[in-house]
Structure formats: C-alpha cells, structure tokens
C-alpha cells in the first residue's frame, strides 16, 4: 500500500476488476498482475462480480488489495457484464479513483470500454505498462497490432485501462483486506447480454496459457475438430499447453480461453509450435517474445514462416505423427541410468 509523505494528500484508490478461473473458481493470475501494477499508482481495491469467499479475499489481500468489494445485487449472475459495469461506475462516482484497471480479454475489455463511456473518461486498450507520473498516470499502450507504442499522460481524469498482463510478474505485498458489499443498481434486464446457462470447464492440469513455457497452437490448416486432437497430443508429449487461432476457436475446435491473438492471449513461451497456422498479423503480434518458433504448414508462402526459427513445409497430418513417434522413441531409449549419467556430466 502506498503511504503518502507527511502533509501529502492521501493516495487515491485504484479499482481493479477481479476475475476468477472457470474451472475452479480461484482468482486469475491476471488479477494479481493488475494489483501489482495498481500499487504503483495508489491504493488497490479489488472488485469481485459476486459473493466473495474467504480464500479469494485472502489471495487478493496477499497482492495488496486493502479493500475487496463483493456484489450481492439480485441478477448479478444472470447479467454478469452489466453487473460489473454498474459496480465499477457506482464505485468510481463515489470514490474518484485515479484509475480503473481490467485485464485484456473477452470480459475485461468490454467492461472497461463500457465503464469509460458511462463515466466520460479516457479509455486505453492494449496497455502494456502504467506508472505514476506527477498529477496522473502515464500509460503505455500499443496500436495497430503492437506498432507503434504510444505513451499518454492522464491529468485530472480517471484512466480506464484494459491491460495486457501476460508479461507482468505478479509480486506479493500482503495487507489486511477489508471485505465490503458494493451497493449498486439492479442491472437493467432489458439491455445487455443475459446468462442463461453455465458449464464448468474441465480442470486444467497444466500451467495457464500465458505462463506456459511450451505452447502448441493449431489453425485452420488442421482441417477438423477431430484432427485438432493432434495439437493436444503434441502438447501432452512435450509437457506443454494447447492453444488455437481465431479461426480454430470460431470453428469450435478450440476453447475460447485458449485463443492466441491480440484479442485473445499474448504469450511468451520458450517454445512455440504452430500447426496449420497461416500466421495473420494479429496472431503474429501475439507471440512477439517467443523463444523458438517452429511452424508446420503446407503453404510455403504462409506468413508464419517469416517469424519462424524452424520451418516445415508439409502436411501436419503426416508431420505430427512422425514427430510424436520420434519423441516416444527417444524417451524409450533413455534409461534411468543414462539419464543420471547425463545430468552428472
């Protein structure tokens, strides 16, 4: 928590939209990254979209959220986007925060944009850095798929930011959290999207996509939902995580939460394998800092090859099975004793 110097004005609050994972209800890593950035500007306050549990409050406090707001208004679960918007708008009008922060994603960007419109405030999308700069925050955000980068300074207004948290390392700063109920208007049932059903995602045994060291992504060139299983098989063989392009997601081959592009996730793996991915501008912009890029596609003119370290022009349906066989063969020839000897050399 920021403590003002003697005689200085109290630090202004920073509202952070807290999100939870679909498969276990735990607070997302992106929220911890937002709280880490928020501490640069003022006093972070986390805003949950529903009733807060003890574990969530404790986690948020561990990363500096001195206040945790929960929403208990009727219809909160039925109108999740509208509820978040109403909550942030009500808190902003009451507390005049220096900034409102949400993570880039399907929920965060929509909520942040709508909040900015309601408040008549400045909205910054694709924010990659934010820091205190005198009377207001300095916001670095990308334009045109990452080029160029623009630094803007906000004075005398609320900065509403959709932040890319993929490259932000969450850092703990434990404080005692106070749980408060946010009194907000009931969402207008005549407007906005209405949630009619909820399906809990399967548990994720691997790292989150944005933190995975190995990612295998599939695109239109995979050909079908059934063939997309090759992506998962290779990811499993390498201990990585499977992802997909915008097209793969829209065709129903890949979960929306695994979408890799500037609208989905920006990732920074040590190894990125693109299978049947042509490589649109928005997809290439989402892997700017990948360590090694291996691309497999049957089109020698595919744009993905322009950024690939290793390129294979061929049919993924032939290349991937052979690659899987080679991985299994090499693993079967490494005995426990030989592995020990190699580690000791």
From TrEMBL:
<keyword id="KW-0285">Flavoprotein</keyword>
<protein>
    <submittedName>
        <fullName>Electron transfer flavoprotein subunit alpha</fullName>
    </submittedName>
</protein>
<dbReference type="Pfam" id="PF00766">
    <property type="entry name" value="ETF_alpha"/>
</dbReference>
<dbReference type="InterPro" id="IPR014731">
    <property type="entry name" value="ETF_asu_C"/>
</dbReference>
<comment type="subunit">
    <text>Heterodimer of an alpha and a beta subunit.</text>
</comment>
<dbReference type="InterPro" id="IPR029035">
    <property type="entry name" value="DHS-like_NAD/FAD-binding_dom"/>
</dbReference>
<feature type="domain" description="Electron transfer flavoprotein alpha/beta-subunit N-terminal">
    <location>
        <begin position="14"/>
        <end position="199"/>
    </location>
</feature>
<dbReference type="InterPro" id="IPR014729">
    <property type="entry name" value="Rossmann-like_a/b/a_fold"/>
</dbReference>
<comment type="function">
    <text>The electron transfer flavoprotein serves as a specific electron acceptor for other dehydrogenases. It transfers the electrons to the main respiratory chain via ETF-ubiquinone oxidoreductase (ETF dehydrogenase).</text>
</comment>
<feature type="binding site">
    <location>
        <begin position="276"/>
        <end position="283"/>
    </location>
    <ligand>
        <name>FAD</name>
    </ligand>
</feature>
<comment type="similarity">
    <text>Belongs to the ETF alpha-subunit/FixB family.</text>
</comment>
<dbReference type="GO" id="GO:0009055">
    <property type="term" value="F:electron transfer activity"/>
</dbReference>
<keyword id="KW-0274">FAD</keyword>
<dbReference type="InterPro" id="IPR014730">
    <property type="entry name" value="ETF_a/b_N"/>
</dbReference>
<dbReference type="GO" id="GO:0033539">
    <property type="term" value="P:fatty acid beta-oxidation using acyl-CoA dehydrogenase"/>
</dbReference>
<dbReference type="InterPro" id="IPR001308">
    <property type="entry name" value="ETF_a/FixB"/>
</dbReference>
<dbReference type="GO" id="GO:0050660">
    <property type="term" value="F:flavin adenine dinucleotide binding"/>
</dbReference>
<dbReference type="Pfam" id="PF01012">
    <property type="entry name" value="ETF"/>
</dbReference>
<feature type="binding site">
    <location>
        <position position="220"/>
    </location>
    <ligand>
        <name>FAD</name>
    </ligand>
</feature>
